[in-house]
Each structure stands twice: as C-alpha cells, then as structure tokens.
Amino acid sequence: MNQEQSSLVLQSSSNFSPPEGVKLSYGTAGFRADATLLKSTVYRVGILAALRSIQTKSVIGLMITASHNQVSDNGIKIADPNGGMLSQLWEPFADSLANVADPFELVQLISDFVSKEIIPLDNVRSAEILLGRDTRPSGEYLLEAAKQGISSIKGAIYHDMGILTTPQLHWMVRARNMGMNSTEHDYFQQLSQSYRCLVELIPDGKKASKSNDKVVVDGANGVGGDKLEVLRELCGDLSIEVRNSSKGEGVLNKGVGADFVQKEKVVPSGFGPIDVGLRCASFDGDADRLVYFLVQPDSKLIDLVDGDKILSLFAHFIKEQLDVLKDNELEKPCDPYHPRLGIVQTAYANGASTAYLKNLGLDVVLTPTGVKYLHEKASEYDIGIYFEANGHGTILFSDTVLSWLEDRNSELSSACTGSEKHKAALRLLAVSKLINQAVGDALSGLLLVEAILLHTGWSIQKWNELYKDLPSRQLTVWQFALFFIVIKVKVVDRTAVVTAKAETVVVQPAGIQEAIDTATAKYRHGRCFIRPSGTEDVIRVYAEAATQEETDSLANSVAKLVDQFLGFGSSQ
Ligand SMILES: CC(=O)N[C@H]1[C@@H](OP(=O)(O)O)O[C@H](CO)[C@@H](O)[C@@H]1O
Ligand SMILES: [Mg+2]
C-alpha cells in the first residue's frame, strides 16, 4: 500500500475509533450490535467492500440492517459479486478489521492483507459499491460511515440505493454483475411479470374454480410492507392487504414480524378476530424471511406455516413440473439429462418436513445454521431448494438446468405449443425469474407461494396439512413430533460451545451432550440440540416432542443443563 493510500486511511480512521471493550464478529449474517457501537465497524466494512470490489473486479453490496433484531440494534453485511454472502475466506479479515484499535495497526493490517491477497491497489480501474439500508433511524448515520470507509480507498465509488429490503440489494448486485437491468424498477418488473406468467399457465380447468381470496401481510413495521405495496400494483388481480408497514405507529419488529410469529406462535399486533381463517403472512424487518400463519379461533394463538412448509410446497410444485417434463422412453429415449433436485435444511427443520420431502423421493441434506451454508450446498444441485425453518430460503437454478429448460421450451413450442410439457418448462423458467437467485426474499417467496396455491387450488388449511396427509400414503409421520420450541439462555461465554454434525451434536464442553441425550430420552419423540447463536450473545436451545407441554418441559430441562455447564453459576 503506497504512502498516499496509507495516509488517506490514517486520516479518515481518526474519526472512527472502535468502542472500547467490545469484540465484534462477522457471525451468522454480518456484524450486528447496538447501533451506537457500530460506526467504526461500518466505516471499516466500507474499506473491506472497496478492497473486495477491486479484488473481484465486480460490484459489491453493503446492506445496513439488523434484520429481525430490535430497532435499537443495527448491523452490516456484504453482498459478494454473485449477490450471495461474503466469501467465508474473507471473514477472518473482516473480524480483525472490525476489532483493531490502533490506527497504525489498522493501516498495517490492511496493507498486509492487500499484499497477501495481491489486491491491485495501485491500479484501481473501478471499484463500485451499492449501498442499501433498512428503515432503522440509525441507518442514516451508519450510511455516512460506510461512505467514508469506501472513499478512503482511492478510486472506489459508491451508489446510495436508498431504503431497500436486503434481498433487493443482493438482487441488484447480482444483476449488475451479470450485465442485466438492475434498478429497483427492474426488480419489481421481473417479479411481477414472472408471477403473472405463472398465473397465466394455470391449467384452464382449474382457473374457473379459483376465487382469488386475499392474503393479509404483516410487514414487521419495516421496509417489506412498503415494497410489497408497490409490487402489488403490478401483479394484476392478486389481492394483498398490507398491515404493519413502516408508515404506521408501530415499532420495527416489536410484537410483529416473521421472527416474532415463528418463535412466539402468537398473533402479531394489528391482527385479531377479523383474521380468523384468513391466509396471513409475516415478513421480518428486512424482508428476507417469510412465514405464513392462520389465526386460531381464540384470535390470540396461531397455526404457523413456517419455512419448512414453504419449502415443502415449493418442492412439491417443482418436482411435479420436472415429472411432467420427464421424457417418456418411447417419445424421446435418448435425452441423458435428468436435473438433480436437492433440498437443504438445518437442524431446526421439523422432522416431519424432512420425512415428507424424503417420501417425495428427494435428496435432503442438513447444513449448519446460516444462509451462507445452505446457499452454498443448494448451489451444488441443478435445482437446489433451501429453507431455514424461520422462513429464509429460495430456489437456485444452475446454468445447465436453465439452458436445458430453454432448449426444451423451444423444442416443445415448435412441436406441441400449449401442451402440459411445454407449460411445465415455461413454469420452471418463470419460477427461476420470480424467485430471488441471490438470497431468500420474502417478496418473491410470497408471490411464488400465492401462484402455487392458485395453481394447486389449495387453501392455506390444506397446505398446512401437507404432512398430516402422509399416513394415507403409507408414511407414519405421526412418529415425528410436530411441536417445537426455541429458547435462549445467557451464558458466560457462548464460544465455549463447539458443535459438530451440522450443529446436532455438542463436542465441547465435555459431558453436556450426554446430559442432553439423557434428558431427551425421557420424552416421546424428543429431539433437542443446542448451539451458540451467531447473531446474539446467547445459546439457543431447540426442542421437539410429542406435545407442546412435553416440548416446553424438555427445553426447560436442557436450558437448566446449559446453565449448569456454562451459566454464571458454573464459573464460580
Ligand atoms: C434459530 C434461528 O432462527 N437462527 C437464525 C439467526 O441465527 P443465529 O445464529 O441462531 O442467531 O439469525 C440468522 C440470520 O438472520 C438466521 O440465518 C438463523 O436462522
Ligand atoms: Mg432478515
């Protein structure tokens, strides 16, 4: 790093000293903390984004959000050139960069990294960063910090894209780097056109029986509801009622939103008796998570239709289209290509969903928590569908399957336009354009769910019973618990917990896994695991059992074990 560049960083960094006594880590989904602690981190991530852009010769994204966390928190994450999460290879550098205190050490750290990674800092052709933020008030001044970080690398420029959902920013980065239209308008156009295309492809017989009843959407008092209102206008007769948009009185994520609904299983604010029986959905604060729910007759509790169910609906639909497309031997015996459809879940996935998916004949794999792991795994398939139970997920299409679908489309459009086969190819192509290829996206996920429900003619009640249908198809899914709970336990040092086997087994501290196993064995269909959160300073305890009471009891007894092994009492 030359003298001029070093002094630029030295000078600008003097306004951004990291807070004392706080150690930040890139975590499951970027840096997150109380917003007052983040100015220096965001500035430094600005530097990192500029370096990443120079190194990859591509546009990079920076999103300022703390997703479903409380409004006083904020965070920052990086979108890599393909629109996905930052390469894990750069995470250690991100951690060091965020935590180094002395300005001269900061310059040294950057300089060493630049040399090690051979980043051509002296010959910067272009380095471009797209900036986005959610509706948090702290986003404004953190954005300024990001801009200053970027500007302290010579030749790097930024474009402030304003308030966006996280998936919109990832989508834009990917589109920019692929040379495609990449504005917010383009995003809305692509999603709405693909949705309308799927609706047009609904078989004629089914169309008549459709009553397009409305879906009521909880926008978590954040950005998602606002964007959905724009999208709704472009989607023809899709009837959407948005509640809890950012323009209302409510506080971001407080008593609302996908995380609240999924974890608490109670109705979000703004919903009540008038919604009993309606199809309802919740986004999280930055609209990368989507869950559906039904308000129970008592109008307080909900039946949750979570990420596992959305995944199952998508898998069912995609598999159906692939089956229609499959050549029958007589018709075309020599097409050797059969797209591999794969499903990726985490240990939080309900056992019943995994059983359902396997029963469809699908390949199901588990990864650790965090989209960066699921996304990577899903991209190994021709069509990879991934979802976290909390509602973050998408469907990835490989280049190979896309060109195969294009070929099938042209073949079939000349041979048998309008046939079910032709329509199946067109549907899969429309799904690949509708569903965000960069990250899970509540807006595109909602449109796909709505299109599939119209296609199948299913009500949300029928969809919710997807797994319960199974016994009639010879699979004893009642052997799997349908109840689960996730609770948090504060401990002295959460990094003392080390897990293996996609986070299903604890290897450290010694003895705790045996104790968890003993506790779990006492419950019918019990399943339980613990892991350190990557976004909060807690240990999460997941428990599943035959009834809600047994589930709660299992979770509480394991929470006690966590406290015994790792809690504040344990260290004395
Ligand atoms: C149990 C749970 O919901 N964990 C969430 C949560 O991660 P933790 O590492 O558990 O804090 O936030 C992540 C980012 O949004 C999300 O990917 C993940 O699924
Ligand atoms: Mg989120």
TrEMBL record:
Residues 56-87, 125-178 form the Alpha-D-phosphohexomutase alpha/beta/alpha domain. It is an enzyme of class 5 (isomerase). Its cofactor is Mg(2+). Residues 488-560 form the Alpha-D-phosphohexomutase C-terminal domain. Interconverts GlcNAc-6-P and GlcNAc-1-P. Belongs to the phosphohexose mutase family. This is Phosphoacetylglucosamine mutase. It comes from Spinacia oleracea (Spinach). The gene is LOC110792552.
